[in-house]
Amino acid sequence: MPDLDEISRAEFDRAEQALETALNEAPPSFKDLGITPLAQQLGLTTEQLNGHWCSRCQGIWFGYTLETQCPACGNRNG
Q: Is residue 5 over pLDDT 70?
């Protein structure tokens, strides 16, 4: 009869391999449109950036809270 530790290790290895395969085959979670020039100029950290949706580009851009213009296409309508 196999040892319980051997079975657990084999199951763990299979699960880890399945997860790695799924992550490698998964599409990106969103289209990153970049960071606005103002946010870069202000030196904002990742935690200080807000994500904004651009309906024209179908992606998310990051900038200062009150910014409204997509850095990729110039759209100001969300």
A: no
Compute the distance between CA of residue 54 and CA of residue 70 in angstroms, rounded to an integer. Answer: 6
b/e 37-47 (16+ beta carbons within 10 angstroms → b): eebeeeebeee
Cα(38)–Cα(43) distance, integer angstroms: 8
Dihedral-angle region of residue 10 (phi above 0 means left; psi in -120 to 50 means alpha; beta otherwise): alpha
pTM: 0.62
| pLDDT per residue as tens digits for the range 23-40 | 677 566 789 999 999 999
Domain borders along the chain are: 4-63
